[in-house]
Task: structure prediction
Amino acid sequence: MKFGTKALHAGIEPDPSTGAIMTPIFQTSTYVQDGPGIHKGYEYARTQNPTRSALEKNIASLENARFGRCFASGMSATETVIKTLRPGDEVICTGDLYGGSFRLFTQMYEQFGIRFTFIDMRDAKNVEEVITDKTKLLWIETPTNPMLNIIDIETISAIGHKHGAKVAVDNTFASPYLQNPLDLGADIVMHSVTKYIAGHSDVIMGFLGTNDLAIDEQFGFIQNSSGAVPGPQDCFLVLRGVKTLHIRMQRHCENGEVVAKYLKNHPNIDKVFWPGFEDHPNHELAKKQMRGFGGMISFIQKDDSLEKTESTLGKFKLFSLAESLGGVESLVGHPSGMTHASIPKEKRVVGGLTDTMIRLSVGIEDIDDLIADLEQALK
Ligand SMILES: *Cc1c(COP(=O)(O)O)cnc(C)c1O
Result:
């Protein structure tokens, strides 16, 4: 099956007891057994829930993964990967990482003896330089947030495997519609389902997919032991949202391209970050490993100052000032003051994330209205 068909049908069967075409919300904590240990495959809802199982199969299929598991948030999915490690293990991570991942790694897991090294992964040689026999995991995020750098999943996966490390990719920004890390050699794909997959800004959820049974069994053990599972109502909402993922992504990409080009030609704009530009330093790689360039765009105005940036942010009417991304509605954000505030300023500016950067999550509204809003906000 192709992507759009899978988005609607993968993992979904009519309910056997009623024929309901939509997967019911199995709002139950437990399941009645015929005798001790004699049951229908469902014992307790932390361990298994049919609404969750349908969604896990669906997203796994979109990522060409044999196995998939959903978690209560993107962060709990990420934490599950880290919990497979042991004290003394080392992790090499993309430098301009999602702020919450940086906080989780440095403020929660370094104290348990896991070492995290943050490097610029655009040059794969940098990975070769810092990788050791203690490196057990490479954590890649691409496109990066908010710099929109592109990292070569295939090359870095090969380096990781040569040194016996597993490779995980946070695929939130691309969505499975634009990029499938497992097909490029990664061992684990992670999503903040909250963003493009759910797509309607009404759910917090995470996902992990893999083709490796041993890894999936570890994830299942942690999912059940730690218990950061999503509720069935949220799983239903995501099952509903995911049915239009391909259509939404097409429009996010179309609108993103128009907005990126508009900003690039705007007299008051100094820099625009979007991997679809031919002069983007990683454009050829983006073309190779992605099927489109998405609707995430960052920019910096000319004669920039924090005051001017804050004043511009206050002028948007249709773009809402909010954290998050990937929903149907357009959002504008201030990475240094919002999503990336948990990363120390010295670390932020090294990667180019200045206090004057503005980030857009271009939604699926009519493009003329989006451009009109930008026009008045940038005046
Ligand atoms: C939002 C986000 C996360 C965290 O996901 P939550 O669902 O908010 O816990 C992780 N990585 C990236 C790239 C994100 O955008």
